[in-house]
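Quarterly update from the structural biology core.
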Amino acid sequence: MLSSHVALAQETEASGEVEEVVVTGSRIKRQDISGVGPATVVTDEQILNAGTNNVEDVLQRLPASAGFGGNQTNAYWTGNGYGTAQVNLRGLGINRTLVLLNGRRVVNGGTGANSAADLNMIPTAIIGRIDVLKDGASAIYGADAVAGVVNVITKNNFEGLELSAQYGMTDEGDGEEFSTDLLWGVTGDKGGFTAAVSYEKTGVVNLASRAPCALGEDAGRLVCTGSSSTIGGRAILPDGSQINFNQTPGGDGDFYEPYDPDKHNQNSNPYLNAVSPIERLSTAFLADYQVSDNVRLFGELFFTHRESEQLATPGTLRNLSISASNPTNPTGQNLILARRSLLEGGPREFFQETDTWRAVLGLDGKLKGDWTWEAALNWGRNTGVDGMTNIANLQRVRETLNTSVCSTAAGAPIPCADYLGAGDVSQEVLDYILFTSIDTGGNEQRSLTADVSGTLFDLPAGRLALAAGVVYREEEGWRNPDSLTVMGVANTNQQDPIAGAVKAKEAYVEVSAPLLKDLPFAQNVELNGALRYSDYDLFGSNQTYKLGLNWSILEDLRFRATYGTGFRIPSVPELFGGVAEGNLTTTDPCSNYSSLPAGSVVRTNCAASGVPAGYVQLGNSILTTVGGNQDLQPESAKTLTLGLVYQPRQIEGLSLTVDYFDIQIEDAIRSIPGSTKLAVCYNTPGMAHPFCGSDQFTRSSLTGEVNYLSAQPVNTGQETLKGVDLGVRYLFDLAGLNATVDWNTTYLQEYEVMPYPGADPIVFDGFIGGGNGGYPHWRSQASMTVENERWTGTYSVQWIGKATDFNAAPGDIGYESPDVFYHNAQVAYNINDKARLSVGVDNLFDKKAPFIQSWTDGNTDTMTYDLLGRRGYVRLGYKF
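Predicted structure, tokenized:
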């Protein structure tokens, strides 16, 4: 049993005959289980010791993970992917990390037209190990492997029956988690069959229990800010002044007063979740049959059903014109109801129900000598239904304000509504204007692959091995929003339908050539190369290649290097996604700009663009336009890694690794967050930046609020990422106990995004927040495991380095987050040869998430930090 969460891929010596295997990052079978590129291996024992029900928890704690990725404690899952789990290697984006299952692609998951696979569609019980290749691999696996590869390898040749169950909760008594796993297998002379079933159900954690209110800085202190969508209604009069109507349900319906955000803003946190409930059933069935001595038939079938929910704030009515003559308007003036929360209807609830299928059918066998072949058909389909309750039909809202068609009479088909004042919206009006939206969508993937592998001939230093193959792949995605959402009359994020498909024909060849062996300073020198030709129906042809050098300088010192090119075409949602709108967490640099030093660039620009001197951003979100861009072109990448592996003979069991990585992406496909666009624009003298154009954002001439903001994907100029991975693994004897230490660290030296050719780069390394996720310079994970025949104990520490807020200014509270350390511990006891009891605690010292000024939720960056606090669990497993 190794470490609790991660272990460095180790260089192990073969003893006796070792079966040749396929290593992630290569198609050539070899005895050396270590590839040329840097990799992390997460074993089934490590997942067990982690005490987690989710693959995402293990992978997102890897030091190589960063940036934006979906998980259960993060409300900002990427496009229509609520409830899915993703990994973001290097922080380059979930769609640049290729997910494989037994070396084959996995269909994207979510509720339609998605960009990444759902990691949790694979039953935990059947996972044998997870290989994480932290190196570009487009020449080996095709598009999308720009940042690296996550390859989930299932257990095979399993015999027997295993049952296990786990239950846990937080210190607060919420967030209950229950899971149960079954694994059963039989093997025989002709083949075998393995089946796995995993069931998981998690409870809800309300956001207000962890963050009672949304915080913002005021006069050097943190205060509750709240949403400017007030329960009484915030209105704008013809002279530009703002008023707010009665905030007390049942109070004076004609009362109004000058709007005061401290007094009137709504606390949204009770209507949001820190953890959203999920119920998931995952199954897997694997079988193989030896048709003849040289031919084997194999198959895989996976099915996952998931139901998930997220709580949302009550719906908001925006920019409703109410005339002076309307009987509900006590002001005697025409007004615009800027924002009014429909608290009377209760909070909204998102919900999703998805089904994901995956089937593989193939043949493999032996040819002459050591040559082998394989042909397989891979099919995957994901379908989903999602929706939201308590959505207002804006057409009907307008009807309830039109006194020529509405009526105050009991039972009127169109009731008249009073939206000015809390509690004034009647149940009859709510029944008339509110509805539940229903959206449908899905993803489908089909591919046919054929591969051969074997020895071409022998060289003085060993065999010259080759692998080659052809691939035909089709991928499509679709999403059909509710008709009222498409029409734009639904009071929710407007969306257009999405439908698109891409097809690819590919061929590849890979060669492994031993050059030198058993020479001074060249114990073994091996050159690896791969070339891939791809032809896409939408973008034409492209070639990618990769070169690798594996040089054992001495018996205990090895140098490894890879250089390769990558290629990624836009995904279906990036390319075909219809325009949609959403309220995204965004920081406006002009908020309270009058307090900035005179002559500062931001103050000068805000004043010059007509923002009122006393302007303060109302709330922390801005309605933002997102969606696809059919003008996108493919992006290309160049990846260099240089590394050393040192295993000193004097210290048995010790392995040290260091790897430098350098990734350059040209024409990078990226959505620049709204906060970043605004910050760059207003920090540019004279607002002479393309981000300042009217096609990027506009402001209200009355209030100064941003009323249009675009974050649609574009081909940026270039992305540059550089850093170093460090690894230490040590197996030793500790007072008669077997002990293992694993310590992995990533230093992010540089990550810059050039938004267009010739522009100043946007610096990501060392920064956090603003909807980007976290990019601290340092991330680390260390663990120690000690064991004997009965007991196993694991203690791990995760370190997230300090980082600067993307959008805060020096001196602001939350400008820089501190170093954060999370401690986890588990003890397992083997009751007998069949039963095992485990008890564990995560976040042992109840470390609270630091305040981030441009937070995503809960006043912190939920993509980076733990919001839940200390939690414990108990697990019982039994083998029959």
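Residues 580-626+674-707 form one domain.
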